[in-house]
């Protein structure tokens, strides 16, 4: 039980939360020495997806602005980072040759935030289904631009190298004597996830976050109480765009390659699934949902071993890829019906049960 408003709004307001965070960080630091490189790459991907999911949760969960255009902002961030980091002197592809991670990461986030700022005035005049349709249009617009702008994207079926993750002269995508490439990328993405999660949590508990919640709950009432509704909506889109741009820049530096067809509607649906499955308007829920969606394909790949009628080939029916797509929809529906607070809600129920045990009724 909280004894004051300050404790209620504190970043870590109980001793149990502080201890749990410390344990999680220690476990995260030990994992590279325990897990295989393949699993570390999967977890690194999950960490980057969590950064993007936090951004979507800020605009959709906290501010109540339904956005289906997250894939568009991811693509802008990914290609901006690739251009900043790309080789100079290439006649076919733009490149500035700046491979230092903070430079291309901030450039990717800033460009996506700038585009979000351009889109925000239109989005701030809409709500609900109309806003969802407008942001959906951004995905199709982005797909067309990415397909046609060969000097930036390399073109369909060709693509271009992603941004090089170089930090203080060390290329993290290459193994060293001490660490493998996947260990280095995992540690980098984990550190960045902690940084972006702390930033997101602080935004949520600040005056900005409270203005987002006021707009989400009742925009007319928020305006009466002095909240600048349009400014809050614009700010939500800008912050969400920055997160998505950074996530896009980082996501493809893991695989080292990106293609214009990588930013379709399914990517936006996956991020919506992360927010709904993890928990709307929670930072920790965004992280849970992102890791769940990142691990899901790995789990479905194991299904043919137990369900022989499923094929691992995309050309045969039924196959694991179809099951994976089906699961996205089923899980969203199931969580909305049975646990609207997502995995975060499941965790809250379990925590409250044990806190009140043996009087858990």
**How far do the termini sit from each other?**
19 Å
Overall geometry comes to globular
Give the rounded overall mean pLDDT. 90
Number of strands: 4
Low-confidence stretches at least 5 residues in length (pLDDT < 50)? none
Strand percent estimate: under 5%
Q: Gyration radius, to the nearest Å?
A: 21 Å
Question: What is the SS-derived class?
Answer: mainly alpha
Q: What is the succession of H and E elements? A: HHHHHHHEEEHHHHEHHHHH
How are the strands of the largest sheet arranged? 1-4
The number of helical elements comes to: 16
Helix content: 55-70%
Biggest sheet character: 2 strands, antiparallel
List keywords for this structure.
mainly alpha; two-stranded antiparallel sheet; 2% strand
Could you explain the architecture of this structure?
The protein has 361 residues and is mainly α. Helices cover 69% and strands 2% of the residues. The chain has 16 helices and four strands. The protein has helices spanning 5-9, 15-30, 37-62, 70-85, 101-123, 128-148, 150-153, 181-204, 207-217, 219-224, 229-255, 265-278, 283-301, 303-306, 320-338, 342-356; strands spanning 160-161, 166-167, 170-171, 257-258. The chain has a two-stranded antiparallel sheet. Strands 2-3 form a two-stranded antiparallel ribbon. β2 (166-167) and β3 (170-171) form a beta hairpin. It starts with a helix and ends in a 5-residue tail after the last helix.
Summarize the structure.
The protein has 361 residues and is mainly alpha-helical.
SSE blueprint:
Layout: H1 5-9, H2 15-30, H3 37-62, H4 70-85, H5 101-123, H6 128-148, H7 150-153, E1 160-161, E2 166-167, E3 170-171, H8 181-204, H9 207-217, H10 219-224, H11 229-255, E4 257-258, H12 265-278, H13 283-301, H14 303-306, H15 320-338, H16 342-356
Antiparallel strand pairs: 1-4, 2-3
Helix pairs in contact: 3-8, 3-9, 3-11, 3-12, 3-13, 4-5, 4-6, 4-11, 5-11, 9-11, 12-13, 12-15, 12-16, 13-15, 13-16
